[in-house]
UniProtKB/TrEMBL annotation, chain A:
Cellular localisation: Mitochondrion
GO molecular function, one term: oxidoreductase activity
Name used for this protein in its record: NADPH:adrenodoxin oxidoreductase, mitochondrial
Top-rank EC class of the record's enzyme: oxidoreductase
Lineage of the organism: Eukaryota, Metazoa, Chordata, Craniata, Vertebrata
Automatic annotation (TrEMBL), chain B:
Protein known as: Adrenodoxin-like
Species annotation: Sinocyclocheilus rhinocerous
Alphabetical list of Pfam families matching this protein: Fer2
Entry's localization field: Mitochondrion matrix
Record-level GO cellular component terms: mitochondrial matrix
GO biological process: P450-containing electron transport chain
Amino acid sequence: PGLHCKRPWNILRERTFFPPAELCPAYSRVRGLSSSSSPRVCIVGGGPAGFYTAQQLLKVGNAAVDIYERLPVPFGLVRFGVAPDHPEVKNVINTFTQTAQHERCSFHGNVNVGKDVTIDELRQAYHAVVLSYGAEGNRSMGIPGEDLPGVFSAKDFVGWYNGLPSNKELHPDLSFETAVILGQGNVALDVARILLAPVEMLKETDITQNALEALAGSKVRRVLIVGRRGPLQIACTIKELREMVNLPNTRADMLPADFEGIAEALKDLPRPRKRLTELMMKAVKEGGDDKAEKCCGFRFFRSPVEVLAGADGKRATGIRLALNKLEGSGESARAEVTGQLEDVDCGLIISSIGYKSIPIDPAVPFDPRRAIVPNEMGRVQDTAGLYCSGWVKRGPTGVIATTMNDSFDTAHVLIQDMEAGKLDLSVNKPGAQAITALLQTRGVRTVLFSQWEKINAEEEKRGKSQGKAREKLLDVDEMLKIAWS
Amino acid sequence: MSACALRVFLQRAAVTRKAAQQTFSQTRAFPQCVTGSYTHSKGINTLTNSLRAEEKVTVHFLNRDGKRISVKALTGESLLDIVVNNDLDIDGFGACEGTLACSTCHLIFEEAVYKKLGPISDEEMDMLDLAYGLTDTSRLGCQVCLRKDLDGMILRVPDVISDARVDSEKESSTAPPKV
């Protein structure tokens, strides 16, 4: 038996070749052709976790993999999280593109899983479903005044300068001299760097035009990056710290008191921590160019307790910090309150204390304390045929490579289960063909990878006319119009 | 997938990677590959290769599954180039395509060989610091170029963080934070 199709597809003798449904109209009318040897896997989420999981699944065996993504555009935080001045980090898009163009892979954008289609419906159409939808929420500080104008989550601020459609109306007010960032991870350093970088450094990147213009008119000259614990617990990595230290026209604004006892601890540190600490201490000692117009510094042993409003109570004008002392040492040191407080005047407060996953479907177990889908090595608890990879599996930390290895692990576990007969592959599953038809009855039309490529080409074209790498489309409706044109 | 189709798939990936590498080496200053008595930037490496008298050397990769992969390669090529050009089956190697934005081309050298390698830049060390299983003879493959006197060297591909082996509490204290 084979697939009879007027198009000149290669039909292999032993296996039936399945062209992407978009390119073969006759295919969509044919039912139940999957042979027992071709498993169908569905991946929820088109970011790094989704693509790396797909990549590994496609490499071994003859599985067909479909990736569903809520936005019309793929790549998740690689597109919306990585800083505009770090284009090399985005090179992974090349390998994701190869994966999406694989003959056994198809991408379906503009599908909101949990709303347009349920997990149960996906599980009926596929032999296995992998949740790779990441962390779209953020941890809140949980302090009074957090909702005042002038306070933003780093997730939203980063989304704003990176063109995430839901953040396009953020309009952060950059007319204040001092900005305070809570949290000292790489996201915090990225935000500080984007706030202080000379516009010349940003104007050829893929930063959005409205963010570029806002930053060009920014009055922000001083950024403080605040952490609960000490220099030896700082969460950022040395590359990002080095970029801050080398930022033109910016001097370091550190407190020597925060570094008491640090020099003595250096010799016992593992090399990565040691080099990071030495670089910070160099910044403390050298201070930097006095003629610099901008400054950036860390403030340690401080936790936010209240956002202060001005006399009219209408917006944030400062932040109250509690001073801590450290109990214990090393990575597991804890911050303990001392009772002392300190107020810092500032007009822009950015909370960078972590992203957070949310539950998207009541049928899927969710651990609200850890904000992840409970799982054992990627197998979702008590739910056969359901898996997870990336931040929704492990929590929202780690670089792209961490997510890559984690996704490979989930794929291997899934393949193991297929080979051990834990998934019933003898049952035919209709896959994307059924889901696309179902979505159509609900008025939802998907964006295929070749259609994303039209959006991609348009963004590059618009960018070129401005001397930029690309000009991202900010409006979902505009994306869809171009995709389906 | 047929072996033929797989090779085409990986070759396409390799071509795209190389193209991306060339594009980015035009916008970033890379450490130079020293070959014999001349130096050339990574960006023009592939273009000028045909004009030089390269020599073939043999390199052995000891993969994570314990299997040894031996390849012949040209002097001047980076170890990442060799993995990509020969479609070596090393999961997730070279994610950032040789631009010092990740640590996935991390390789462990024999001590005697390590001592012969060129100097390590701050940029390379910054990324190497994030590599899992860092050793005193670790380097990033994209920054090490093949020379005649490295003929026959054995490169160990380190294990990577795996959910199966490290529990999440321990991992959070050693894993690098977000990019």
